[in-house]
Specification:
This protein has eight helices and two strands, in the order αααααβαβαα. The chain is mainly alpha-helical.
Length: about 210
Amino acid sequence: MGRFVREVLAARVTAGAASRGELTYLAPVAGFPGFPIALTDTFEELRLNPSGLSRLWDCGESGPDLARLLAAYSRELSARGLADHADRVRLAQQAVAASEAAIREMAIVALDLLPRTELERDLFGSVMRAARAHLDLRLAPGSLDPASSLESLQRYLFSGDSVPPRADDGSVEIFSTSGEALESVEIARSISAAAAAAYAGCQSVCRMS
C-alpha cells in the first residue's frame, strides 16, 4: 500500500484511540491535521527497526501512546490484508531464505546501496551472503584526492562541493540516446569493446611471453 493509505490508517487508529480515551501525552496534538502524517513516518521507522519495540512502552512520556497506536495500526494491516514497506521487506527475507539454493548460483553486484534500517540491512546482508560471488560498489568519498576522472565523478556526483577541473583521462565516457532501449544497446557496445580490447591485450602479452 502507498503513502496515502498508510496516512488514512494512521488517522483511523488515532481517532479510535482518542475516542476511547487511550491517549495521554499525545492527546492534545492527536487532532491536529499534521499528526497522521508525522505518525505515518514514525510507524515506518518503528516497524523497520523492530529491535527497539520491546522498550517502546518505557520510552519517555510518548512511548506508551505510540505503543498503543502502533499495535492498533498493525492490527489494521493484518485485518485488511495490507502490507507496508516493513511487511514487504519481511516477505522478501522469507523469499530469500526459501530460494537460498538458487541465489548461491548467482553473482550479485550492489551499486551504491546503503540500507537505512535494521530490516533492510538484514535483507541486504542475507542476499549478499547467499550469493556465489558478490561485489558491493558505493559512491563513497575517500580520504585521498581523486586519481582519475572516474574517481572524481564518484567523489563529487552527489556532493555540493565545487569540482576541481582535470584533464580527461578516458576513464569516463558520456553518451546520449533517445530512449532506454538505445541506451542499453550503447552500454552493451561499450562493454563489448572494452572486453575485446582487454582480450587483445592479453593475447599480445601471451605472444610476447
